[in-house]
Amino acid sequence: LQPKYLQGKKILITAGPTFERIDAVRGITNSSSGKMGFAIAKAAIEAGAEVILVAGPTPLPTPLGARRVNVSSSQEMLGAVNAEVPRVDIFVSVAAVADYYVLNPSEQKIKKDAHILTLELAPNPDILANVAGLAEPPFCVGFAAESENLLEYGEQKRRRKKLPLLVANQVQDAMGAEDNEVFLLDDHGQHKLNRAPKLDIARAILQHTAKLYREYHNP
Ligand code: C5P
């Protein structure tokens, strides 16, 4: 691979958590730091790609050269992704999208009392599965954080969402950490990337992505 092996390619990346509003001050989120997705964005810029980074709430600085679109809820993330996706070659879905949103969020701060408060939650749409299911999808890379049966659940997820490449990691290893250890799952099988800083892991993921992308486009 050339140093600028993604020159001329447009890459859309989602990163970070989403935030689902309960009321004027509260919400539901998860412990994604956004570090892995931001590292992918940085590595993609190094490799010459044009990068659009759709980011959930995270204080991380924007990698130099990326176009950042900030979103909060998963619905907003879906909207931002759908607006960009027709013009991109590759979609890397790193965001930890909340699985549910609050059906009737309150405009005002909910007052507390001694009663049990029940929230109604409805499932969020799967942004990645929607993109991968398009008539002419970009090359889609998914992530899966699992707490057990990593390779089995990862491969099931890859097939269910119809992805050429899925990056699987242990929840306990990845969340918030500076390092990561991952498995790349594709049609050829599995490939381990040993524990390393997230930027090194990001570079290796993108190199693998570029090779597979070429296979898919020049079979
Ligand atoms: O099914 P699960 O949430 O584990 O799948 C993880 C992968 O799917 C990640 O790539 C994540 O970004 C993506 N995803 C999504 N929209 C959702 C849930 C997950 O794009 N609502």
From TrEMBL:
Domain DNA/pantothenate metabolism flavoprotein C-terminal: 6-211
Keyword match Manganese: no
Signal peptide start and end residues: none
Pathway this chain belongs to: Cofactor biosynthesis; coenzyme A biosynthesis; CoA from (R)-pantothenate: step 2/5; Cofactor biosynthesis; coenzyme A biosynthesis; CoA from (R)-pantothenate: step 3/5
Portion of the full-length sequence here: 179 to 397 of 397
Functional summary from the UniProt entry: Catalyzes two sequential steps in the biosynthesis of coenzyme A. In the first step cysteine is conjugated to 4'-phosphopantothenate to form 4-phosphopantothenoylcysteine. In the second step the latter compound is decarboxylated to form 4'-phosphopantotheine. Catalyzes two steps in the biosynthesis of coenzyme A. In the first step cysteine is conjugated to 4'-phosphopantothenate to form 4-phosphopantothenoylcysteine, in the latter compound is decarboxylated to form 4'-phosphopantotheine.
Cofactor: how bound: Binds 1 FMN per subunit.
Keywords: Decarboxylase, Flavoprotein, FMN, Ligase, Lyase, Magnesium, Metal-binding, Multifunctional enzyme
Species this chain originates from: Chitinimonas arctica
Transmembrane annotation, as ranges: none
Molecular function per GO: FMN binding; metal ion binding; phosphopantothenate--cysteine ligase activity; phosphopantothenoylcysteine decarboxylase activity
GO BP terms in the entry: coenzyme A biosynthetic process; pantothenate catabolic process
Protein name listed in UniProt: Coenzyme A biosynthesis bifunctional protein CoaBC
Family: In the C-terminal section; belongs to the PPC synthetase family. In the N-terminal section; belongs to the HFCD (homo-oligomeric flavin containing Cys decarboxylase) superfamily.
Reactions catalysed: N-[(R)-4-phosphopantothenoyl]-L-cysteine + H(+) = (R)-4'-phosphopantetheine + CO2; (R)-4'-phosphopantothenate + L-cysteine + CTP = N-[(R)-4-phosphopantothenoyl]-L-cysteine + CMP + diphosphate + H(+)
A GO cellular-component term linked to this record: phosphopantothenoylcysteine decarboxylase complex
